[in-house]
Amino acid sequence: MSRTIAIVEDDPDQRENYRAALVSRGYDVQMFRNRPEARKAFHEKLPDLAILDIMLENEMDGGFDLCRELRAMSSDLPIIFLTARNSDIDRVSGLRLDAWDYLTKPVNLEFLVVRVNSLFRIADTLHSPDTEEEKLVIGALELNQSSMSVRWNGSPVSLTLTEFWLVEALARRPGHVKTYDAMMQVTRQSYVEKNTINGYIRRIRNKFKQVDSGFDMIETVFGIGYRWKQN
């Protein structure tokens, strides 16, 4: 069964170019020109992956709003922002909404297809059957790779998908430093800056502190990266 990709783009020429590239690789493609059209369709059935522009007709941040709505429907739907807005503020805003990638126009269509294929491989891994090997317990931390759930001292910690990946990468090797470059790779995103990583870590710490005010397991190695504290 072929996968369904939703493209939400108000420019008809660009929309058709993306569609043609993806259909040629065997994907089914739905196309929408604005947020209301897409939202109505998504409430009926979610696609397997969504590609969103940010500026949609008369909505300057329509793509951001649609991403929030999609995240409320699914915590692990692959979402790509594909937009002409290339400022650091917009890029960080998109990734904070837990988009899986942020691409800027003009985009090489072959590169777009490669990114889509890559994100589907990641999604397949997330939905694979649960096994004991996919459960990681380190001290008070319990990670379940299948359900992407986290517990600290038995209490659930609500993390986004990217935050989960970062915690998992750090906790697997307590005491070892994860450099910024390594953590950028962990996010599975095509472009991430140091400040974005710092923002992720700050939010992760705050979420753990909501269930344990004394949480201090993520240590900063200034100028280099972070590490999970070794007991």
Can you describe what's shown?
By secondary structure, the chain is α/β, with parallel strands linked by helices. It folds into 2 domains: 4-126, 3-Layer(aba) Sandwich (Rossmann fold), CATH 3.40.50; 132-228, Orthogonal Bundle (Arc Repressor Mutant, subunit A), CATH 1.10.10.10. The chain has helices at 12-23, 35-44, 62-73, 88-96, 109-126, 161-171, 180-186, 194-211, and strands at residues 4-8, 28-32, 49-52, 79-83, 101-104, 135-138, 141-144, 149-152, 155-157, 177-179, 218-221, 225-228. A hairpin with a 2-residue loop joins strand 8 and strand 9. It is elongated and about 55 Å long. The model has no long low-confidence stretch (mean pLDDT 90).
Write the layout of secondary structure elements.
Elements: E1 4-8, H1 12-23, E2 28-32, H2 35-44, E3 49-52, H3 62-73, E4 79-83, H4 88-96, E5 101-104, H5 109-126, E6 135-138, E7 141-144, E8 149-152, E9 155-157, H6 161-171, E10 177-179, H7 180-186, H8 194-211, E11 218-221, E12 225-228
Parallel strand pairs: 1-2, 1-3, 3-4, 4-5
Antiparallel strand pairs: 6-7, 7-8, 8-9, 10-12, 11-12
Helix pairs in contact: 1-5, 2-3, 6-8
What number of structural domains do the residues give? 2
Q: What does the overall shape look like? A: elongated
Q: Sheet bearing the most strands, described?
A: 5 strands, parallel
Q: Please work out how many helical segments DSSP would assign.
A: 8
Instruction: Return Rg in Å.
Output: 18 Å
pLDDT averaged residue by residue:
90
- For the largest beta sheet, what order do the strands appear in spatially? 2-1-3-4-5
CATH structural architecture of the largest domain: 3-Layer(aba) Sandwich
Helix content estimate: 40-55%
Number of separate strands: 12
One letter per element, helices H and strands E, the order comes to EHEHEHEHEHEEEEHEHHEE
Task: Calculate the terminal CA-CA distance, rounded to whole Å.
Answer: 48 Å
